[in-house]
Automatic annotation (TrEMBL):
Ranges in coiled-coil conformation: none
Protein name: Tetratricopeptide repeat protein
Segment forming the signal sequence: 1-20
Keyword match Transmembrane: yes
Protein source organism: Deinococcus xianganensis
Membrane spanning residue stretches: 575-595, 630-654, 660-681
InterPro entries: TPR-like_helical_dom_sf
Length: 698
């Protein structure tokens, strides 16, 4: 049957070419042939043009990211929406192909021309995964918005498949029945889901809420057919390109239209529950419901937000990485303050003795040139005891680890927000090209991601080759391939094996008919009935695939120190400099453990500056005792947590705002304990100095 259809298409193409002439001069399209003689001047808003190509009594023309089928009089009878700007149209052999270009990515698609449809229609044979690019997703609305009011009626007549033109025409109607008829017409076509969302927002704003609800229903159906799945995260940028439903919810809440906001929240919950900023919007909507006395609904939305936490980093939720980063920043600041206080105190204590000991070597600074080895034995840490050196060394190494944690959080966050991992779906030419820009770590997590893209694109052979090992998620997806090919026994064996290996694997439970309760299972049952459920990687697996754990980040920094200064991958040059500096300091402190201790008589061990710092910096003068390190660390944590009060730093991911009184109380306790310990240390020092004087007199 396919051969007959292709042969008919080829014959009609040749016949149309022989009996008609279509030319494109600039932006003027002229046609003479079986469909009559007509001429259209195409507006600049349509973007770059390619073609034309004659197929039977239709004229195919590429305009922007779409291919139009034009019938008699140049009226649009069909449109194929593509993921890039159409660069060429070809009728080679028995097929019509369209090439697209976007961001350096070229794709080719096979067009199905339906000459038997009313007026003639177009469809695309391959899967079309739309990139999160407003140039593509907002194109139809942009074209309609640029039509002058004087030519709006003519433009809507020539392009009845652009519902944004029809809606503008409906809003200009004085007759409400005519306006309603035009609104109904906007819902009768075929659109990509971002256009449905944009149309729904405009219908809502124009006072047609029922039509907006139907448009959102159409959006979900189209998104599901394109492979968009609620288990895949969506970034703020991607969601903005897909119609910005979260932004519209915020506008509705600001206007007090809570019921309409609820409809849009339901759309997000069903299609994009894991969108960037979702936690804050869920809580804002719940607080709005609380204010209206709808506590039960508010509690249900909060429970839904909590249900999205499994599979995230440390089960902290969708925005948990921000809390991890801020916790690492707080720890880094606390350790940095503690280390600085310890080194400053040790340096001040050794300063007078160091001046006396380096006088014969040429002075404190000149001695580095004259007697570097002898001078190295008189650095200020050489006057510290082994326990004091060990404490500051451990502080430096801990600081290196927490700074590495900040770096890891930055790199992980940038990778997880990349369009490859946060566009709502996997696969497609644009996605595959973007995936190459990520440096995936070899392993089952990266293999799962790549294989899913191939499977969604229909390349089951390549996907099966990539699904290797005993990974439960991969077994489930192999079972999906087996069921798709009609091998039900093998599919059920693979699903059972996957569920036995990972009892909480929702996809395998769904495929075995166990009816798990989850948003993804409900989505699959409602919009993809009868289709098996794929297993997608959660946030933990994605993080392992793109950045690995903390040891991987630190190891990469040690192997390539200059890469720490490159901010292009989500890092920070200042953070890179801090990592390099602390690494060097840690190495020097480790070497200092090998230095013999330079004697420090009791008479010179507690100079005035040392005593002042001992009172101002709790624990800094008590590093000989493990309790001194504990006290210094506690002081560093409390001071670092109080620094947001100064406005110098912000820890947005940590709930510190309500703990200020407790932190101030803890700070007072540290100073009280430090004063007590300082007095006891002074008593011990006095006794030691007295014994030394008595021994000297004897």
């Amino acid at each position: 049957m396919r051969r007959v259809r292709c042969a008919l298409l080829a014959a009609l193409t040749l016949l149309g070419t022989a009996g008609a002439t279509t030319t494109l001069e600039g932006r003027t399209l002229r046609h003479e042939g079986a469909g009559g003689t007509w001429q259209r001047t195409l507006p600049d808003a349509l973007g770059p043009l390619s073609g034309p190509l004659e197929v039977g009594n239709l004229v195919l023309l590429g305009a922007g990211p779409a291919v139009y089928a034009l019938g008699a009089g140049g009226v649009v009878t069909g449109r194929a929406d593509l993921p890039g700007i159409v660069s060429s149209l070809d009728a080679g052999g028995d097929v019509v192909t369209a090439s697209t270009l976007l961001g350096g990515v070229t794709e080719r698609f096979t067009l199905n021309v339906n000459l038997n449809a009313q007026g003639g229609g177009l469809s695309v044979q391959e899967r079309v995964a739309l990139p999160p690019d407003p140039v593509v997703t907002g194109w139809l609305a942009s074209v309609a918005d640029q039509v002058p009011p004087a030519t709006l009626a003519d433009a809507a007549r020539l392009d009845p498949l652009n519902p944004f033109l029809t809606l503008r025409l409906a809003q200009a109607q004085a007759d409400p029945y005519e306006a309603l008829s035009l609104v109904r017409r906007t819902l009768g076509g075929t659109l990509p889901f971002p256009a449905w969302v944009q149309l729904a927002a405009r219908l809502d704003g124009a006072g047609f809420p029922s039509a907006a609800d139907l448009a959102l229903t159409q959006a979900q159906a189209d998104a599901s057919a394109r492979g968009v799945d609620p288990e895949i995260a969506v970034s703020r940028a991607a969601l903005g390109a897909f119609g910005n439903p979260s932004g519209y919810v915020g506008a509705l809440l600001a206007q007090g239209r809570v019921d309409r906001a609820g409809v849009w929240m339901t759309y997000l919950r069903q299609l994009h529950p894991r969108f960037e900023g979702g936690g804050a919007l869920y809580e804002r909507y719940a607080r709005t419901l609380d204010a209206q006395g709808r506590e039960g609904e508010a509690a249900e939305w909060r429970q839904f937000a909590r249900s999205l936490r499994p599979g995230t980093l440390y089960n902290l939720g969708l925005e948990g990485l921000g809390a991890v980063r801020d916790a690492a920043r707080l720890a880094s600041l606390a350790l940095g303050l503690s280390l600085l206080a310890a080194l400053l105190t040790l340096a001040v204590r050794a300063f007078p003795a160091q001046a006396d000991d380096t006088r014969d070597l040429g002075g404190r600074y000149r001695s580095w040139l004259r007697r570097p080895l002898a001078r190295a034995r008189r650095v200020f840490v050489a006057y510290a005891s082994p326990s004091e050196r060990l404490t500051v060394t451990l502080l430096a190494l801990a600081l290196l680890g927490t700074l590495g944690g900040v770096q890891w959080a930055n790199l992980s966050g940038a990778a997880l927000r990349s369009p490859v991992l946060s566009s709502g779906t996997y696969g497609g030419g644009w996605w595959n090209a973007q995936l190459e820009t990520l440096t995936l770590r070899p392993g089952p997590d990266a293999a799962l991601l790549t294989a899913l893209g191939a499977q969604l694109d229909g390349d089951d052979t390549r996907a099966r080759d990539l699904y290797t090992g005993a990974d439960a998620c991969m077994r489930n997806n192999l079972g999906v391939i087996a069921r798709t090919r009609g091998d039900e026994p093998q599919a059920r064996d693979l699903f059972r094996s996957a569920l036995a290996a990972q009892p909480d694997l929702m996809a395998a439970a769904f495929n075995l008919g166990l009816k798990p309760a989850s948003p993804e299972a409900a989505f699959q049952q409602r919009l993809r009935p009868g289709q098996p459920r794929l297993c997608y990687p959660d946030q933990r697996r994605l993080t392992r695939a793109v950045t690995g754990d903390l040891s991987v980040t630190l190891g990469a920094g040690l192997r390539s120190p200059l890469a720490l200064l490159d901010p292009s991958a989500g890092g920070s040059a200042r953070l890179g400099l801090a990592l390099l500096g602390v690494s060097g300091l840690g190495a020097l402190l480790l070497l200092s453990l090998l230095l013999p201790r330079t004697p420090l008589p009791a008479a010179r061990s507690r100079p005035a500056g040392f005593r002042v710092l001992g009172l101002l910096l709790p624990g800094a003068s008590l590093l000989d005792s493990p309790w001194g390190g504990v006290l210094l660390g506690a002081w560093g944590v409390v001071v670092a947590a109080l620094l947001p009060l100064s406005g110098l730093v912000v820890f947005a991911g940590l709930p510190l705002a309500g703990a200020q009184a407790a932190l101030l109380g803890a700070l007072g306790v540290t100073y009280a304990l430090n004063t007590l310990a300082f007095v006891l240390a002074e008593v011990r020092h006095a006794r030691r100095a007295g014994r030394e004087r008595q021994a000297g007199s004897n």
